[in-house]
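Closing statement on the F58 sub-project.
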Amino acid sequence: MTHTSAPSAAREHTVESFTREFLREVNFGQGVDLDRASTNDKYLALARTVRAYLTTRWLETLRTQRREQKKAVAYMSAEFLLGRQLDNNLLATDLDDIARDSLSQLGIDLDELREAEIEPGLGNGGLGRLAACFVDSLATENVPSIGYGIRYEYGIFRQRFEDGRQVEEPDEWLRLGSPWEMPHPENAVNVGFGGRVEAWTDESGRAHRRWMPDWHVTGVPYNYMVPGYRNGRVNTLRLWSARATQAFDLAIFNAGDYTDAVRAQTQAENISKVLYPEDSTPQGKELRLQQQYFFVACSLRDFVEKVLPEDYDLHRLPERITFQLNDTHPVIAVPELMRLLIDDRGWEWEDAWAVTQKVFAYTCHTLLPEALEVWPVDLLGRLLPRHLEIIYRINEEFLEQVREAFPGDMLRERHMSIIAEEPVRSVRMAYLATVAGSKVNGVAELHSQLLRDKVLSDFAEMYPHKFTNVTNGVTPRRFMALSNPRLSALITEAIGEGWLTDLERLRELEPLADDAEFRRRFREVKDHNRVRFADVIAARDGIEISPDAMVDAMVKRLHEYKRQSLKLLHIVSLYERITSGALPLADVTPRTFVFGAKAAPGYVRAKETIALINAVGRTINADTSLEGRLKVAFPANYNVTLAEKLIPAADLSEQISLAGKEASGTGNMKFALNGALTVGTDDGANVEIRQLVGDDHFFLFGMDEPAVSDLQASGYRSASYYEQDRDLRAALDMIASGAFTGGERGSFVSSITGSLIERDRFMALADFRAYVDAQERVEAHWADQEAWTRSAVLNVARTGYFSSDRSIRDYLARIWNA
Ligand code: F58
């Protein structure tokens, strides 16, 4: 992809014109005088000033696309975890310095306004953040594209701790205004639900089906601009908000029941009310299916009726678009497109299927069987009866093919059916996506291989050409330039400009790993970032840490397969060995263990683990005999904004999932790019990180995936590890004794230790010894700061591959053919 060379905003605009526009927004946008304006007034005025600069380029991008009609990509995702917008938009437009100068002349501190922004947390974790990185890279790589999703009124819950336990609060991210969005109620789309399907015959005697929904919801599009990095392109992210079809349902209103009429409205608006805070196990809730159908039905209609030129021949749809399905959440788009073509436009099944199979592609983000989404047919049939019919027909024809390819193999047919019979009749959405999509991709090499060999092996045998890999990536604009300005400046000084959009150029830093002066300056940057992070959590959470200690970070959703409990066992073991005299304090490396993690509100074990981490933290942090050498910092409500402060400060990145469970990970990439070393298993993208940075600069430990499978097959007995490893036993016993819970041994303490000793589904005990050994290698390496810094520099230099720009180029070459 070539970059259009639009003149940067900086050259076109002066501080004076910026000031004029800003003041205009204060007066006429906010309706206040500058000397009476609140911080929020000033933030909103600034945001709108920057937005106006973007709008010019956005309109230009839209005009060009209408003229050229190039093949585009629609990225369909139930989540976009965007993070703050102001910083990113200032960076992309190169207005940072102008804005700073302009504001400072008015006596306003730009950074104070930045801090006023509430981040849109419209995602749960990695999957949502990946979507946000991808729209950034699509724009920067100059790909015509549009993101489609849901404008949740409440994003991921805000986490608080009460007595160490997680408490969830609604995330009212819209409460102070939303300057980045542009609603277009006049382009609203109606979506049906429920009802029945009718048969009818046309004049020529041809039979048709017609869906008669019994209730409707209106989708109002909200546009967000997604700027490429200083290349003049601004793409669109279109999020849908649900409204009642009519403010008052006339029939009910006329019947005189005002409250019933209002109730109908509330029910409709519930659809986009809140993001489901699940992290990997879908709950099969009806409202969730409503959300999914709502946003894909709006998006398909929008694309076909508004984005495409009028009278566009839909037989040629594959020349114009790929709908990339981000996991199975948008997969109901498959029968919806079939319905649009067959029922609404009178197409034959075969023609509709030929087009449908070419325009969809599916990305899978998991390996956990329980995370594969299924919808009970009675629920689906009640909500979307016509779609269920279409799915049945797709399945019939597909199973016919299976029978042809594997005659007599009844078992295979049952395994591969899109409809599962047990435990309740359900639609397997991943299978539907695989059958309908032109491509299926995993998100790291190992993950894609396991998809082919295990999770979807029957399908890979039948459609080998469909399966491919695109390893995830992260945007270096947000996760280097914005979050780590000092490292970015040091890199630019060393290798010149241009690396931010050509991240493999970080390789040019390799020789500097051997340059003592460069290493000193690299360390200076880390030291600064550590102090900055310490200040942030002191102000935000009242947590005191020493800025000199190693920052050892484990941040990700709380899930058993990710094994926060293994990290906790390591911490407790260190503490136990110190207090029992086995480990002299002088030999203990000063470390801050930083956790960031939200637990799904209904995931009891995950919440207990949070409570236990906080309990252990409280005890260790208060124990003066440690002389402050070990600290546990668990700031609440980990989000993108906090990640931007933590990651640049981190020295050690914990990526310790059980091998074969983490599809990819993207935090692992962000940490490596910011000079943290990884302690990790052979899992997900860790595998590729290690291959690139080299074994000497990565702390590998634990079983690999085949070893895990073997151990599973031969009968894993966690208790034997407990019995045989003195340190492990002592750590578990210490927890069980109530040492961290004020003598309390019951409740969650015994349930966590008990389940680890008796079952340990994710084999934390089996990997404990290897993990502790790896941590000793970490400490030995850390003791030689020159060697450590050298490794850190090499991590930065060798991980340019993990730019999401590269991921997008891989999607273009392997999937989108654009
Ligand atoms: C994550 N999945 C993977 N799901 O766990 C991670 O390895 C990968 O790097 C990332 O996707 C990007 O590919 C993930 O975040 C969710 O949050 C879903 C939210 C909705 C319910 C099901 C899980």
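The pocket of F58 is lined by residues 124-127, 130, 278-280, 282, 365-366, 371, 443, 472, 662-666, 684 (CB under 6 Å). With this model delivered, the sub-project is considered complete and its resources will be redirected to Aim 3.
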